[in-house]
Amino acid sequence: MIIPVRCFSCGKVVSQVYEEFKVRCEEYQKVVKSGEKPTETPKEILDDLGVDRYCCRRMIISHVDLLQESAPYE
Ligand SMILES: [Zn+2]
What we know:
Blueprint: H1 15-33, H2 42-48, H3 54-61, H4 67-70
The site of zinc ion has 7 residues, from helix 3.
């Protein structure tokens, strides 16, 4: 569904960085597909956004955005 507001394990607010992570990751994937060397990897994006603990990283990395698919069936 939508990204949880806080990390389930430690309680840090993670929803605020999700949109930026998604945008920068799409940019990374575009650059990799075109065969060029990316300026930043997803690891460096998470480091830059201040998501240090692995419990918080898994919240963002493992999230699957299904809201648009389930919204018509409310
Ligand atoms: Zn956490």
